[in-house]
Amino acid sequence: MVAIRNTDLSFDSVIGYEADDGKLIPMVTEAYMRVMVELCNEKFRVNKERTEAFRKALLGSFKPQQVQSSGPCAWEPIEQRRARMKEDGLRRQAEADSKEL
């Protein structure tokens, strides 16, 4: 399990305090609170986009790479490689047997 943390989108603001008698005293207006809520909602939207982009990149990294070249370094399925290696081995064995005669 991996945890990924990012403080890019953090938001802190003092909006009030608790008086000695337990009463909550606001330090900002209701209009300013609305602005802060909108700002936080936008940060949540950006975070969701980033999370989705990261998820797609992470899942994409587990898919086999498609190699464009067709040379000896090109990726080939395991079954195809086994068949090719077997054919190569049989060919070399036949060549070696023909040289012994």
TrEMBL record:
Q: Biological process GO annotation list?
A: methylation; tRNA processing
Q: Which SUPFAM superfamilies match?
A: SSo0622-like
**InterPro entries on file:** tRNA_yW-synthesising (IPR003827), tRNA_yW-synthesising-like_sf (IPR036602)
Q: What are the protein's UniProt keywords?
A: Methyltransferase, S-adenosyl-L-methionine, Transferase, tRNA processing
Q: Does the keyword Iron apply?
A: no
UniProt catalytic activity: 4-demethyl-7-[(3S)-3-amino-3-carboxypropyl]wyosine(37) in tRNA(Phe) + S-adenosyl-L-methionine = 7-[(3S)-3-amino-3-carboxypropyl]wyosine(37) in tRNA(Phe) + S-adenosyl-L-homocysteine + H(+)
| Record-level Gene Ontology MF annotations | methyltransferase activity
Q: What is its EC number?
A: 2.1.1.282
Keyword Cell membrane tagged? no
Positions of the tRNA wybutosine-synthesizing protein domain? 1-58
Pfam families from the entry?
A: TYW3
Name the Gene3D superfamilies on file.
tRNA wybutosine-synthesizing-like
| Name listed for the protein in its UniProt record | tRNA(Phe) 7-[(3-amino-3-carboxypropyl)-4-demethylwyosine(37)-N(4)]-methyltransferase
Species this protein is from: Aureobasidium melanogenum (Aureobasidium pullulans var. melanogenum)
High-level lineage:
Eukaryota, Fungi, Dikarya, Ascomycota, Pezizomycotina
